[in-house]
Amino acid sequence: MSSKRKKAPVKKGGKRGKRKDESDMDSDLSERSDTENTTQPDEVLIAGHGDAIDDLSQLPEELLKTMIKPAGQLIIFGQVHWDNVGKREIKPTPKMYPNLYYPNLFTDLKVRYAISGCVAAHNVIVTEEGKCMTFGRNTFGQLGLDDTNTRYAPTLVPVLEDKNVIGAACGRNHTLILTDTGTVYACGDNRSGQCGVGNLQPKILVPTRINYRGPPIIKVGCGAEFSVILDIKGGLHTFGLPEYGQLGHNTDGKFFKTSTKLCFNFESSPKRVVLYIEKSKDGHVSPVDVSEIVDFSCGQNHTVAIDSKKRAFSWGFGGFGRLGHAEPKDEMVPRLIKYFDIQGKGVRSVHCGSTYSLALSDYGVLFMFGQTKRTGEANMYPKPIQDLTGWNIQHIAPGFTSIMVNADDAVIAWGASPTYGELGFGDMQKSSTVPKEVNKLSGLKVICLTMGYSHTLMVVNNETPEAQEKLKTLQTFTP
Asked: In sequence order, what are the residues at sequence separation of 6 or more whose Cβ sits closer than 8 angstroms to the Cβ of residue 308?
């Protein structure tokens, strides 16, 4: 009898989820029907949360110098009708924006950063003065503008008007914003606690300070429904949905509320990742001493991080080998990627897409593991991308199924069909399975590069006369 009872929820959940997806969206961008779990927990916020008592001093000068980039011209291409991103059925609206198959100039603002996420349909841009502006889909208030109306043009976020913003991250329906005092603000969907404000209020419409008291934060990252922040001392803190172990707290947070109803223990405040492990071939687990984490990247449901010894650790959802451990198992705690643990294979930076990860080694070789396209072969362990051998790679932007790389003075992109113009090749060839140069952008100096679910944003230097001439050849997108 008990076995029968246990099976029931699986069947039920599957059916309900399916019906919702078919009618509305691709399963990858589906808004989960977990509305049953949104009961408010009786949680008390830490005293002094967001109060004026907090002494907010700026991050160290040297650090800010490395983080603050010069400003330039914003370029956009791909799918810009935000409400249709990732949806199967396109709802006609009075004004439809076609996909931009060629790079387009966007806004006259001088932009320092442009940020989106591999499963995001919204964007954050930071102007030269450090002001935070947002645009894109806004179903959960992820733009932080105190409403849920989609914006097509960058709009200033009033709550952060007097703050100097130095970083941001976009999840599927939530946003984290980092200021120069190492403080993090969050807004958007909070049904899984991914805004880290200490409760499960379903929508947070204005940027709210997260429930965190610790060393100042220097980097923020978002997965689909979870978030990761890195403090100045090298500690990683995670919060949000624990479903696949992507929080790295050695649990997937599942429990049965009733005999048939499965719920999750959402982490609604940042919690530090304390254990890092390595597994030997026979499955023996031993802890790894990690003094500090220096960089990390979040995919849809997984995370890869690098420590100060250039070792890479990955955890979360393991499907398609995106964790690089040569097996598709979910990892509940950060596990050392053995492949990079050899002399000369140290990792310089990591970049995670939806179902894959990219790692740039010390020698400038780009490795890919996981699967970029929807079908076909998956890389179960890191493999170098041969076509990029010899290029000096500066920026890497992983999208949902597409990848953009800036190497030397060229922009290289690839991604299997279906694409929406996010590769910038034009309307004749929309997709490419092998890395290919984006001719329209060659010779431009890229300052910042990011991809969303099906669009690309980049900031390029427009100081030199050559750059200005080149930019004049591009069209302008004015929503």
From this structure: 234, 291, 292, 293, 294
CB-facing half-sphere around the CA of 173: CA atoms within 13 A:
25
> Cα separations (Å) of 42 from 36, 268, 388?
17, 12, 53
Residue 5 pLDDT more than 80?
A: no
Task: Give SS3 for 30.
Answer: coil
The string of pLDDT tens digits covering residues 99-120 is 999 999 999 999 999 999 999 9
Residue 319 near residue 300 (C-beta atoms within 8 A): no
Q: Cα–Cα distance between 475 and 215 in angstroms, integer?
A: 45
**Distance, CA of 195 to CA of 174 (rounded, Å):** 7
Are residues 362 and 344 in contact, defined by beta-carbon separation less than 8 angstroms?
yes
Closest Cα partner for 411 from 150, 70, 103, 171? Answer: 103
pTM above 0.85, yes or no: yes
Q: Is the dihedral of CA 205, 207, 208, 212 positive or negative?
A: positive
User: What is the token pair recorded at 33?
Assistant: 């029907």
Rounded average pLDDT over 348-355:
96
Asked whether the predicted pLDDT for residue 6 surpasses 80, the reply is: no
Q: How far apart are CA 434 and CA 368, in angstroms?
A: 13
> Given this model, what pLDDT does residue 50 score?
45
